[in-house]
Specification:
CATH architecture: 2-Layer Sandwich
Radius of gyration: 16 Å
CATH class: Alpha Beta
Number of helices: 3
Strand content: 25-35%
Oligomer: single chain
Largest sheet: 7 strands, mixed
Distance between the termini: 13 Å
Number of domains: 1
């Protein structure tokens, strides 16, 4: 399994709450959010990472950009937007805890800086995005490559 497929498996546990998952670049995300269910967890294609070749395993560490997005109106008031952002912060916290509980990745913790997203895409969404290093706990066996 790739890092992305492992992230998707964790995100899929939130489908019962009406949260969708999308993986792609920002341009395709912009189009996909027109028809995807919101709120959404978006895993933006990582721009960089590193491969760890040690202890007989190949483990991938991606410098991930993960966004939590939901609908907003075109001309929103700051207080309305803040309510959405706060709910997405709560979703992000639960998602990162679910990632840790999955034991698929090294623990995500410490200070996690975020940026608020709005007026970034054509679709009317708001939310938050995190740049987080995501490293597999178990990779692929070197002999199997």
């Amino acid at each position: 399994m790739s890092v992305e497929s492992k992230m998707k498996s964790v995100a899929d546990t939130f489908q019962g709450e009406g949260v969708s998952y999308y993986f792609g670049d920002w341009a395709r995300t912009n189009i996909a959010l027109d028809s995807n269910i919101l709120p959404a967890i978006v895993y933006v294609m990582p721009a960089s990472g590193e491969i760890d070749l040690s202890a007989g395993n190949v483990r991938d560490k991606e410098n991930a950009l993960i966004a939590f997005l939901d609908k907003t109106t075109f001309d929103f008031e700051a207080t309305e937007n803040n309510v959405i952002v706060e709910s997405l912060k709560a979703l992000a916290m639960r998602f990162f805890i679910a990632c840790n509980n999955s034991r698929l990745f090294e623990p995500i913790g410490g200070k996690l800086p975020y940026r608020v997203v709005y007026d970034m895409l054509d679709v009317n969404v708001t939310g938050i995005k995190f740049e987080v290093p995501i490293k597999e706990v178990t990779g692929k066996c070197i002999k199997g490559l």
